[in-house]
Each structure stands twice: as C-alpha cells, then as structure tokens.
Amino acid sequence: MKRKGVMNIFANKQKLFGAAAAFVMMFSIVAQPANAKTANAKLADGTYQITTAEENLALNKDADFEDKKDSDAQKWSVSSDEKGYLKITNVESNQVLTYKDKQLTLADDADSKAQKWQLKKTSDGYQIRSVYNSKYSLAENEKAELENAKGKAESFTFSETEKTQTWTGPVLSASAGSVEGPSGRETYYNLDMSGVVSAMQAAGIEGEYWVREDGVKMYGDYVMVAANYSIRPKGTLIETSLGTGIVCDTGGFASVNPTQLDIATNW
C-alpha cells in the first residue's frame, strides 16, 4: 500500500488557558503551542526507518508513505549538531528533508536552518518539528497540503536499522541461469510455494508471501531462498544478488554444493 504525495507539514496553533487546560493536559494528548518551552527529545546519530505511529507506514525517498520494506529508499541517516538539531538524509537519494514555503521538500544538503529538525516526545513516538519555523511539523495526509493541528500532534517512530549492503557483482536472471553471488553460487527455481509458506508460518517465522515486480518470490521483506539446512537453517537471513534473502526451503542440490542458494522466482 503506497500513499501518493502524502507528506506535508501542518501548523500547531492550539492554545490552552487556565486550570481547565491543565486538567485536559493530564488526561489527553494535545498539540503543543508553537512557542512551548519544552526540551528537545534526543536521538542518537544513526540510520533509522521513520514510520507513522498509528499505521506503521514508512517514509520513503519520495516523501510518500508505504508498507515497511528492507530498502535504502526507506532508510534515513540522522545526525545532530551542537544544538541538538537534526539533519535527516535519505540513504538512497542522499537528499535531505527540507522546509520550504510551509511545505516539505527533499533537497541537496545545503547545511541550512531549513534542513534542521527537532523532536518533541509524544505518548507514542515523536513530533518532528521544523527549526526554521517551529509552528510546522511533519504530518501524514492523503493530500500534500497544510493542516491546522486541531487534535494531538502527529507522531512518528524511529526504528534503528542498517544501510543495505549493495551488491555490485553479477545479478541472477532467467537469461543468466546461475551466477556467483555474495554468498556463493545462485540458481533459481519456480514451484508452488504454498507448502513452503505454511511450513514457515508453522515454525513461527512471520511473513506474507508475495511476488516482486521482477518475478522474485518474497516472504515479508526478504527474497525466498532454498539452502543447505545443516549450515543455513530455516529462517537464516543471507545476502543474495537480488537482495537480502531468507532461507525457507532446501533441495537435492545441497548435497552436491553445500553453499549453493536456489532462489524462488516465477521465471
């Protein structure tokens, strides 16, 4: 599920007055006024997936939200300056989240105030607020437009991850037949995977079966791989020329070449 152009920025304008407001603050989560003197939440420098707190959709390099995948397009390098302000850079495109004319864009790194962000802790994650104009914070919506924050502040979670290791060697394809990949010889096969999927789920390894656009069969975020169970047990994650794989099957080839991988495709 992909949300087209759903990243925008919205204004925080809610004001609270008197004891009644204090009572509300005790029992509900509301958007902070733009000038609220709350301390910035700290986040260690690193690589993260940024997801919506409510729907668990991941922010990608196009400023869209989509289901989480193990892809550099959904990974963000977060670094802080001496004031604790964050720069948020997409790992794949190397472009930086940028505030421009009350809208969110991605741009080349200019080391500018418009590319600095601060976090405010919420009950279920963080509000990501612009340093350039603290009235505005990131939000997910069906349209790329401004919204007035009438309810609770939009919340996002940061899940630490690692940059995907990019394979620069030969890539398995129907025409290639077999290649030497990052973890050994690779071949491919095309069989009904329903039994394999059932066995994975029975083993408590969660995931959904689907077929990638290039015909590679997937289990969750991972390429489905057959391997030698004695050295690569079911559920093992392993690098292939087609992306990170998960061992979910085996075959007679394993007795001939113990390090060979047979990759499930629809070719």
TrEMBL record:
Keywords: Signal. Residues 1-36 form the signal peptide. Residues 46-170 form the Ricin B lectin domain. InterPro entries: Ricin_B-like_lectins, Ricin_B_lectin. Pfam families: RicinB_lectin_2. Gene3D superfamilies: 2.80.10.50. This is Ricin B lectin domain-containing protein.
